[in-house]
Amino acid sequence: MLYTRDNVIPAARRGSRAELPGGDAGREEGAVKVADRWAFRRRSWRVAGVGVVAIVALLAAGCSGRTSSSGSSQGGQVQVGLITKTETNPFFVKMKEGAAKEAAAKGAKLLTAAGKFDGDNASQATAIENMVAAGVKGILITPSDTKAIVPSIQKARDKGVEVIALDTPTDPQSAVDALFATNNFQAGVLIGQYAKAAMGGKPARIATLDLAPGITVGVLRHNGFLSGFGAASVDDTATNQVTASQVVCSQDTQGDQAKGQTAMENCLQKDPSINLVYTINEPAALGVYTALKSAGKQSGVLIVSVDGGCTGVQAIQEGRIAATSQQYPLKMASQGVDAVVNFASSGQKVSGYTDTGVTLITAKPQSGVESKDVQFGLANCWG
Description:
It is built from 12 helices and 12 strands. It is of the alpha/beta class.
């Protein structure tokens, strides 16, 4: 009982003795009965109220569960992951800047990671696991080891994460939802065609300073260069680097300037008559130039490359590099972020290959080879 005898006394005193037959005992007994009835009703209302609150709470919990299970696209901030090969290469530095800018513009949160060096698959695999655990909606990746990373990518896709390769296709390309990249084979073709025209019929003694064994972007650029030069009959479906009789030295550089210098020094020891050098990227090309200058051979060797960074275009302006195929990492990154944000809101994933463009940049154009000048290169460079 939630009331006492004292609670009912004031109610009994409201009436006169004449109004309650049977004297004090009758009056008190009647008052107690009235109080009992009202107390019961109060208890019933309280019990009913508790039940209604409990039902409302259960319904609210059910609705809340449905909302959270749909992920960040239902009112939360979309999370986008970006995993690059390294944090030091200017190409990937600019890619990261572009992704961060686009993510901020779209109200998304960007999570980033990178390998410790070009070819560091273990760090990239760990980054994928961490980003999936963090709840990203999509991952943009420039794969270091284009084959070894595939199982990690598949695990992420199995959990509903959209995975897009940037710059470098996986092997197979279908391991990701989509690829946003330069046509790397065409980038090689352009500098091969340029080198052929610039050599003017002079017999070529070629050194190729490549990336690393089996990496798709390296295979495509290398083969494209030899195809464009006319030294080898190969297309973009080849999965291994080809060679040719004019190639007298091939060395891997991992796209690093210091390793490019060492590789060129080794090639000069092997064949001092080298007069044409293809490099996987501009950092390697600058290493080549340093080695040639140290050997007093910088004026007699043509260097061609791929990237189109501001440092590389300036090197063309200064005569250290003859030509480069310019690519556009900002475009790759921004389109990748947009695709993930769109997936978060619409549930529609992108697919296939998107060509983000490539342009031959040179200060010395050659007849029959389409190119743009240094001013265009500087206006569109990165880094």
